Amino acid sequence: MVRNIVLITWDSVRADHCSCHGYRKETTPFLSKIARKGLKFENAIVSGVPTPVSMSGIFTGNHNIEGRVKSKSLAEILSKNGYMTSAFHSNPYASRYFGFNRGFKHFRDYIWKDEDGYRSGYSSKWRSLAVNSLKKLKFINVNRARFYYNILTVLIKNEYIVKLSLNKFYSDILSLINTNKNLPLFLWILLIETHFPYVPSNWNRWRKAKSMFIHDKYYKFGGVQKRVSLKLNSKELELVLDAYDGCIREADTLTKQLWEDLKDTDPIFIIHADHGDAFGEHGFYGHPPEHYEYLIRVPLVIYNADVKGVVKEPVSLLRLAPTICELAGVK
Q1: What whole-number distance in Å separates Cα of residue 203 and Cα of residue 133?
Q2: At what angle do helices 142-157 and 205-218 cross, to 10 degrees?
Q3: 235, 211 in Cβ contact below 8 A?
Q4: 239, 306 in Cβ contact below 8 A?
Q5: HSE of 187 in the Cβ direction (CA atoms, 13 Å)?
Q6: Residue 31: HSE in the Cβ half-sphere, 13 Å Cα cutoff
Q7: pLDDT in tens, 288-301
Q8: Is 76:103 a contact under the CB 8 Å cutoff?
Q9: How far, in Å, CA of 285 to CA of 76, rounded?
């Protein structure tokens, strides 16, 4: 029997911050539940950092330091074998610019206007107007202008607009599924909620703004992540980690919501992350192209695929594409 397959990517989630991997906080109750019923990988290792490098490896099965999908992709293979291939997310580094739309019949990256008229919040005319106005202040460059605009948005509207939450386009996903029930489905959803800067939706605007200011202390907004001499004090680091863990819990809740809304189609659910994040270890924060364990070891669970257990040996996520083909009955 041909199965529907749902691939859910959590952005920037390291395995050791997931409660299903023994983390002290209950960050992933739903993932822990399905991991016990499905197949959990204790040492899933991404092929590179950051997102374009990792995800291009996942979709092609090949190492790709350039981070562009140029060779035959998983979506192409499944599409040619009768699958309706669809993708929804708002991460610019996994957008059509990097070739990730290859093989997808429906690809919504919400970055640029596409043939169906979808447009991202990134293109907001009000954001552009505000940023251009801030740029006129001689001491503020464009990246700093964007950062302060986002701070103001949080303080005024209690909303962080650059990270387009799944809730903003959730109805698009359900609508597409409900109008295309004849073909088996391969659905890819990348959750940006867990990406820097960590802004849990259930935080009040003051905690959100404070967290973003602390992040700005060690991260040049819009710039390249690198080793820095600045260090956070214990209270600052605690707030950042609380925010990060809150975002992981939010991703877990959204994943549960997806399962509840799609379970009647009996899908195989595959949940993983594209890489981890650093919090001062080895002198840096975020996810520069390093290969320390906390950056490359990520959660990976395959659920409702008639397999269960725990795989303890290291497994490369380069093997995920052929595994999905096997689950789909495709050579």
Answers
A1: 29
A2: 160
A3: no
A4: no
A5: 27
A6: 33
A7: 888 999 999 999 99
A8: yes
A9: 36
The span from the CA of 326 to the CA of 331, in Å, is 7
Q: Compute the C-alpha angle 148/239/288, nearest 5°.
A: 70
CA Rg value for the chain: 19
Give pLDDT tens digits for 98-142: 999 999 999 998 765 544 444 444 444 545 555 556 556 554 555
Closest residue by Cα to residue 287 from 237, 224, 331: 224
Identity at 268, one-letter amino acid code: I
Of the candidates 210, 190, 194, 199, which has an alpha carbon nearest to the alpha carbon of residue 277?
Answer: 194
Contact (CB, 8 A) for 298 and 18: no
Determine contact, residues 268/304, Cβ cutoff 8 Å: yes
**pTM assigned to the model:** 0.87
Output the DSSP codes for 35-71: HHHSEEETTEE-SSSSHHHHHHHHHHSS--TT----S
- The residues, any chain, with a CB within 8 Å of residue 136's CB and separated by 6 or more, are none
CB atoms near residue 301 (< 10 Å): 25
DSSP state of 222: T
The pair of three-digit structure tokens given for residue 136, joined into one six-digit string: 């006129």
Distance CA 305, CA 307 (A): 5
